[in-house]
């Protein structure tokens, strides 16, 4: 899933590899996916984008947006996987969108679980997009200690650490994937209530949010995700499906995996005790 480190990585690589390329054709889904949502008629994307050149790519939280000449945009989010194909490289048989460029290269978009792809002319009024576009992420200068503490004060005292970090778009680009390592390095159990955290622990959580997200972005995303070239990210996760059987890197204890709030959480019960 695309979270802030991956959106930053995608935007950086798109700017590196496709800037200035001109669209030759846009191919609609070769295999429709009921959990891939498009803005408007995907069959109209070809007439909108054909002949337009790429001006830039930007990251907005969980969204990546490509800007084309003429005020046209294409963004994607969540579980959309995007790969750059070189000239002559065959696309997968099943894809949700393919953008071919006049130099023979192409971008191919596939969805495993769910995701959205939107081509628009500046009128995309999706609430999540608008919030991610207008808001600040934990890596922005405006995400200060004061801002963070106000967020903590704005939620109910019995809100869990996971709910605080990964719901209601409070921390743009931070989701169930990135929060695992953030909570581990902060020494906080995913189910721990905010009311049990001291000011010092809250500030430690903020420091972990900024440090871990920053490292993940600097290293090209997490090793559980792939980038524009199909390579896994350079950040080695410590609490993920990749490490569940490896043991806690701090104490050597068993890493626990359990379902919580619609997704899996990974934690060390010794290093992240559930304080009540």
UniProtKB/TrEMBL annotation:
Gene Ontology biological process terms from the UniProt entry: base-excision repair
Domain Formamidopyrimidine-DNA glycosylase H2TH DNA-binding as annotated: residue spans: 134-225
MF term (GO), any: 8-oxo-7,8-dihydroguanine DNA N-glycosylase activity
Gene3D superfamilies on file: 1.10.8.50, MutM-like, N-terminal
Family listed: Belongs to the FPG family.
Protein name: Formamidopyrimidine-DNA glycosylase
Originating organism: Lactonifactor longoviformis DSM 17459
